[in-house]
Amino acid sequence: MPKNSKVVKRELDDEVIESVKDLLSNEDSADDAFKKSELIVDVQEEKDTDAEEGSEVEDERPAWNSKLQYILAQVGFSVGLGNVWRFPYLCQKNGGGAYLLPYLILLLVIGIPLFFLELSVGQRIRRGSIGVWNYISPKLGGIGFASCVVCFFVALYYNVIIGWSLFYFSQSFQQPLPWDQCPLVKNASHTFVEPECEKSSATTYYWYREALNISSSISESGGLNWKMTICLLVAWVVVCLAMIKGIQSSGKIMYFSSLFPYVVLICFLIRALLLNGSIDGIRHMFTPKLEIMLEPKVWREAATQVFFALGLGFGGVIAFSSYNKRDNNCHFDAVLVSFINFFTSVLATLVVFAVLGFKANVINEKCIAENSEMIIKLVKMGNISQDIIPHHVNFSAVTAEDYHLVYDIIQKVKEEEFPALHLNACQIEDELNKAVQGTGLAFIAFTEAMTHFPASPFWSVMFFLMLVNLGLGSMFGTIEGIITPIVDTFKVRKEILTVICCLLAFCIGLIFVQRSGNYFVTMFDDYSATLPLLIVVILENIAVSFVYGIDKFMEDLKDMLGFAPNRYYYYMWKYISPLMLLSLLIASVVNMGLSPPGYNAWIEDKASEEFLSYPTWGMVVCISLMVLAILPVPVVFIIRRCNLIDDSSGNLASVTYKRGRVLKDPVNLEGDDASLIHGKISSEMSSPNFGKNIYRKQSGSPTLDTAPNGRYGIGYLMADMPDMPESDL
Length: 729
Prior knowledge:
This is Transporter. It holds the Pfam family SNF. One of its GO terms (biological process) is L-leucine transport. With 729 residues, the chain is mainly α. The chain has 2 domains: 75-363 and 435-642, Amino acid/polyamine transporter I, CATH 1.20.1740; 364-433, no CATH class. It contains 30 helices and 4 strands. It has helices at 6-25, 32-37, 67-78, 81-85, 87-93, 100-125, 129-136, 142-170, 195-199, 202-211, 226-243, 247-273, 278-286, 290-293, 296-309, 316-321, 330-381, 400-413, 418-421, 428-432, 438-450, 456-490, 494-508, 517-527, 530-561, 567-594, 616-630, 632-642, 652-662, 714-720; strands at 184-186, 191-193, 598-603, 608-613. The strands form 2 sheets. A two-stranded antiparallel sheet has the order 1-2. It has a two-stranded antiparallel ribbon with strand order 3-4. α10 (202-211) packs across α21 (438-450) and α12 (247-273) packs antiparallel against α22 (456-490). Mean pLDDT is 80; it is low at 1-12, 15-59 and 648-729.
């Protein structure tokens, strides 16, 4: 960032000193209480600072050890489980390779501009989400509180998924893997395969019965699952220990948790490409279906995925960027992290469908072998004539091409009788078209594929360790989105708050490790974040573009970055992004209204899933989750609009509120660096206490330590409103 000239510095210092003199000359001599409690000239011994060299004041706010550590933290937060088990599913469902085009367009229109906006406000104001939105518009300060509530809701169930991954990780150190075969049940007379497993599959049975021991409905609690309770406790202990020192502790872990998933994904891709059928899976994945791309649902789901993939609205992006230097090029960071996220999703899609292609090939070979035996039996029984079978076909080692040839011949010859033969076409595309996502992909489809890998325990260990690391990276950002704003606002000790937060979340999270816990995870995933986060980001966009002022914000960015951002962002933030977000919100509300609220329950007797509607109390919980998440926004607005709470306490929220009322047109400084201001600026104050460091004139060269919420200190504020009562300070 360019340094200010001596002339600018001298003029600014003269103006500030004059405002302080005006204040002192206008003081009421009888107002001793004001002098003693609020206006104290504090001359302290400071390190000699050469203004010409522009050396910076030591900032008490923690900072990243390196730019790489910060980028890894943002990548770790944005790249999560959704990249592995949501994006591939959407890509397959919405037109294969053609889905990438709407996704890229929406990444440029919604993703990068809004990600850049959050990075900018966090870096500029150097506060968590509560402090940032209080600073920009105190009446919209509830945005920060809403972000914290949503982060807490998401953290509750997201760590449960990490717990599931830990359980599977712990069970992977055995050969064969425990979900490789159906268990046998013994009774007095004979041994037989577990009926529930026989009706489904080994991996499906293991997931629902051995891991979750799931109940048949959300109303049937079934008590705690002690295995998952222990795993959830371990997950929260790991998160607590990693976050207890803030970025000093979590930042070092990022080197492993953010990079390790890429190592695993690349290893999986190389291994899968060496297996039969992997190319079929990739070809199926990226075959574009252009007609599907024009459907509105495809664009809605692409916009939703872009929105959540970057972690917009959670507050984690703002929290991480608040530990940056003021002159960091956050525009470069926004573009870099967004495209890393996109290419990670594409890499994960390649891996998933290469592995699923191999799995489909294995299943298809079994299908062909079983149906070939049926054809041989039908020929022996005389149902099918031997003459129609081509002479070159050898059923003892039949290929897929030969089988399909025989199948087509039989279908034509036995046109009317064909359905009664119960022969299967055994097409690999039919298996690949079985779209799976979420836990169904990770804990059922992928685990089944790995049982066919050579050295399957090794690959299982690697896969679930990758899931744990992907989850932890996102959890660090989510918890940071809770801890940083509260620490900045209420000045509590980070270590104590982290322990309390994790302990409380574990206790509440016990509802997710009941036998019915999986249904609550589905409920929270569907209702606690989607609509509230959309509303939060819309309000963020409005607060910056229309309340704070897009022109003023662009000037701030020019001041902070040292160059003016492209006008593209001006039009995106002011016109395009708000309209796109409102359209997405309306589409999401309509889709939620048209989709019956419910969940897929596992029915033990049928050994299959069945869609059930939520009971009345479940609907109340769903609505309550959405209302509680967005409730802080209107509550804070009403409180501040009507002055329902005395703001004379010294906390950040009240101070920024008074800043918003008094300082109507703040002067924009060309670079708030140490060559101009030796004290801490408003966004860098470690504790906004009145009574000390309100302003300071040192010997040598006059310098200014600004007030917590104004660039020029309390003298400038009072000069604007000399009759402001003492409580308004």
